[in-house]
Design a protein that fits this description.
The chain is mainly alpha-helical. The protein has 2 domains: 3-38, no CATH class; 44-122. Helix content is 68%, strand content 0%. The protein contains 7 helices and no strands. The mean pLDDT is 84.
């Protein structure tokens, strides 16, 4: 929001006003247009997570967690099992472990956000 937006809004309202008078209806329409223009675009991460954690849960996640969790959800949805998802997500770090229990790692990761395999897999 800046003075350029304000100037454009006043010009637009004056131009679109019936009879050259700015009405409450014209102002309301312009406010709605400005709010839509100023709103942050929905990221791909937010789209993936919105149906799982809801708007309230999404608002409580840091950007870092949103991006990381969204990618984990995408991998889970593209996998046939929790073990397969774990192998994909932990492909590098699992090589350094003597015993790789990737399914348990992803299960615990999802649980830290209050999610489980059924919830993540059930969403579209």
């Amino acid at each position: 929001a800046n003075f350029r937006d304000l100037s454009s809004a006043v010009t637009r309202m004056a131009t679109l006003s019936p009879g050259g008078r700015i009405t409450v209806e014209v102002v309301d329409e312009e406010i709605a247009r400005l709010r839509a223009a100023w709103q942050e675009p929905v990221s791909g991460s937010d789209e993936v997570l919105a149906d799982i954690v809801g708007p309230e849960g999404l608002a409580e996640l840091d950007l870092f967690d949103r991006v990381q969790l969204a990618e984990a959800v995408r991998v889970c949805r593209a996998s046939r099992s929790l073990a397969e998802a774990g192998r994909k997500l932990f492909a590098v770090s699992r090589q350094k472990k003597k015993s790789a229990n990737d399914a348990d790692r992803i299960r615990k990761y999802l649980a830290s956000f209050g999610l489980d395999w059924a919830t993540v897999g059930a969403a579209p």
